[in-house]
Amino acid sequence: MTATTVAHEGDPYKVGHHDRPAQQPAATGHGDAGPASTNVIVAYGFWIYLLSDIVMFSCFFAAHAVLQSATAQGPAGRDLFDANRVAIETACLLASSFTCGMSAVATQLRSRLWTELMLLLTGGLGLVFLLLAGSEFTGLIHQGAGPDRSAFLSSFFALVGCHGLHVTAGLLWLGTMMAQVLVKGFRPDILRRLLCFNLFWHALDIIWVALFTLVYLIGLAP
Amino acid sequence: VPTPIIQQGAEVFGRLGWQSIPWDQPIPLAAGGTVILVMLCVIGWVVVKGYVPYLWREWITSVDHKRIGVMYTMLGVVMLFRGFIDAAMMRSQQAVAFQAPGFLPPQHYDQIFTAHGTIMIFFAAMPMMIGLMNFVIPLQLGIRDVAFPTLNSTSFWLTATGALLVNISLVVGEFAQTGWVAYPPLSELRYSPGVGVDYYIWSLLISGVGTLMTGINLVTTILKMRAPGMTYTRMPMYTWTALAANLLIVAAFPVLTATLAMLALDRYLGFHFFTDTAGGNMMMYVNLFWAWGHPEVYILVLPAFGIFSEIFSTFSSKPLFGYRSMVMATMAICLISFTVWLHHFFTMGAGADVNAVFGIATSLIAVATGVKIYNWIFTMYGGSVRFDTPMLWALGFMVTFVIGGVTGVLLAVPPADFALHNSLFLVAHFHNVIIGGVLFAGFAGITFWFPKAFGFRLHEGWGKATFWLGLAGFYVVFMPLYMAGLLGMTRRLQHYEVASWRPWVIAASLGIIVMAAGGACQVIQLVVSIRRRHQLRDATGDPWDGRSLEWATSSPPPAFNFAVLPQVHGTEPYWQIKRRAIETQQLAEQPDYQDIALPRNSPTGFITAFFCTLTGFALVWHIWWLMGVGLLAAYVVFVWFAWRDVHEKIVPAQVVERLDRERRRARADWLQRHGAEAGAEAAA
Question: What is the ipTM of this complex?
């Protein structure tokens, strides 16, 4: 990161030797007091990334909307989706979002034990979600309703699969973060990464809510 | 019908084999052999001269935005030559292929026009524009680096990976024969069973991720890291256009990623997104592709507008006319560019109402662009205009771009488009705006900021020769193509039978020779300038009497850019500093120097890109174990980088002071000379 960590400590670059007051407000990055702090920059950049990721998901959502009825005389959503499984999946993911939030609270309190514990719970719930989604996929493929059956199923598998890939990447990241907290403790850069991980995990949850509604609920509707 | 790969058996090297090299086709073989030979010679020379440690330390692992910007631009220029060779082959094929087969068989000709488009857009124009932004934006903002320097390095190396994969396809296998847009169902497995489309998909997916990360990086940089006092309405025009372009990258490139991922799923796992069976919808690909593709046009041309804004203002010795209207026009284009994509396929049959909406939206962009053209004219009006090479490119741009804009507005009228769709008129139009806009801006920007990057100017005479030959060559190639298009000649013809097209096609081929002469002048200019670098030395860091902050530091700038971050009081901060120095006849008082923390170098980007190249190659050829190795290595590199404890290195205050004292001495000399000149003028 660039040398901006101290931007809130008065006049870090001695830029105000001409006409600036000794006391200046914290840099917000709006141009009044120079570059923002690293915390702001990292979180801001990660938000922009999340926005771009949501744009990518929106393409898969759009494709699903276009291809929803293109079943090619094959099964449609209401013939295939299992409401109970989807309910459990949703519960897992929402609960994992809660535990993820609790890990952030524990991090705020600088409790290494509770942070690790909550992250472990988050990861466990995420894993259960993934296993459920995986068993749904294999079940569908065994029924002959794989992604090569129809354009509708292609878009379904791609959308749910893309979300699943994100959860998988999130789990890898989560494991790495747990190791980092264990080894390196709550250093400023580790704290920033935990913040980004939290943002990522909640964003996946939001996408799942959209997926649950637009794919499963609408698909199950008669 | 080829089967999707999930149903195929696995070989150790997948589809790759001895027969993958086109032994029976002399042209790609010779071209590929030459490229390999040149690369081996360069690598050998670097090794023998002992430059490897230097290259590794100062360039390959560098996370300095200036170095990365230079490497981006160099990649763009090299690939521009590659793409130009493709263009020359297409023009010469058409020159001889009148009622004759010519020298390029169809499957090879098709690869050439596909590679030409892909390379020019993704690996020539994009790296040139991104490279210039990378180099200039932090300097214009008065800061020390971009928001995420290591990510920046990774972005660059991923772009290089994409370029490398496209070039590997020259010798190992083939490139796509689908045109650079790769429309299905032609690009589906059933109709393109070879590896060409796979090379296309993976090179664009990998480099696209790099571009997206650059977008995130520069948006964050511009919005969150500006020198103290630089409010939005004090940002230089180039920074504004860069902001708009990078916002477009963030919003548009994920669409490309998703679209190509869908095409890959169709080809690799038997999905039916765009197939002509099982309910696939190929027009969805066309819509998605252009939902990315039209903003992409503005990702390229908005920074070009920014470069010209800087140049018009600098070489007219006047502030930019209508700064606020320019910002408004830029942001208007940024928004509207997302609402016009359908004009690329009016012929889809969406109906008169839909076509009318998109046609009107397209014409609206011309209004915003018109605002810019008038602002540039009024910037020159009443100024003392200097006709250095960058200004010549800017003037050439203005005339050429207006012609391209006018033919664009013509094409925006749906009924006219029905007649001209896929004709050479269209080809002439988009070359008119992309060459006249983006490429001219690239050359102008390189000439303009070259002294800042390397500390010496480019040779003026050879630069002017390049400009005049490039401009003339452009007109001789593309004006005839408008005519051929109006006569009904469609694009991508390997041979043709219509006699009335022939003179125009021949004329265009002659133009290529003029353009090639311009390219030769460009190379000579570089060689001559390097040899005479001592005469062309830029001692003050301000060779063009500049106005924005990049000219406030020395040429080349120190690693930390600015010894102390400049304080900004207006839209032209450096101009104000300069005026104050001239009025008071002294420099600002010597600042109190402090230690400066800079990001440490990291090979992360290079290693990541290395494994991405392996993964991409493995995916093209279905070598699954290698793909696994690549992905595993990517994760290992990620963790390894995350484990790093020291992120910064410290430049001690004494070093900062020593370097800045040299800069101040040069400025003091300049001020003394300037004072003497001003005195002589007053006496006269």
Answer: 0.93
Q: Kindly state the tokens that stand for A20.
A: 């600036």
Does the beta-carbon distance from B284 to A148 stay under 8 Å?
Answer: no
Q: Is B598 on the interface with A (CB under 8 A)?
A: yes
Contacts by B665-674, CB closer than 8 A, 24 or more apart: B666/B539, B666/B540, B666/B541, B666/B554, B667/B540, B667/B541, B667/B581, B667/B587, B668/B587, B669/B539, B669/B540, B670/B539, B670/B540, B670/B542, B671/B581, B671/B582, B671/B585, B671/B586, B671/B587, B674/B582
Q: Token pair for residue B580?
A: 């104050």
| C-alpha to C-alpha distances, B590 to A184, B564, B618, B670, B684, nearest whole angstrom | 42, 10, 58, 17, 34
**B272 and A72 in contact by Cβ < 8 A?**
yes
At position B148, the amino acid (one-letter code) is: F
Q: Tell me if residue B159 is catalytic.
A: yes
Bridge partners of residue B98, in order along the sequence:
B496
- Residues across chain B: 684
CA-wise closest residue to A89 among A128, A46, A139: A128
Q: Where are the alpha helices (DSSP H) in B7-64?
A: 26-48, 52-55
* H helix intervals, B316-351: 323-336
Of B216, B275, B592, nearest to A48 by CB-CB distance is B216
Q: How confident is the model at residue A20 (pLDDT cuts 50, 70, 90)?
A: very low
Pairwise CB contact (< 8 Å): A40 & B230: no
Contacts of A56 (CB under 8 A, 6+ apart): A162, B254, B255, B257, B258
Segment A100-124 shows an average pLDDT of: 96
- Which tokens hold the place of B395? 């003037």
CA distance A138 to chain B (A): 15
Alpha-carbon gap, residue A120 to A175, rounded angstroms: 8
Q: Is B211 a catalytic residue?
A: yes
pLDDT band at B582 (very low <50, low <70, confident <90, very high): confident
Per-residue pLDDT at B349: 85
Q: What are the chain A neighbours of B254 within 8 Å (beta carbons)?
A: 52-53, 55-56, 59
From chain B, the residues in CB contact with A44 under 8 A are 220, 223-224
Tokens describing residue B292? 């990315």
Residue A64's Cβ-side half-sphere holds a number of Cα atoms within 13 Å equal to: 27
**Mutation target vs B (from A4, A8, A15, A193; most B CBs, 10 A cutoff):** A15
Work out the average pLDDT over A191-201. Answer: 96
Is B92 a catalytic site residue? Answer: no
Radius of gyration of chain B (CA): 26
pTM: 0.93
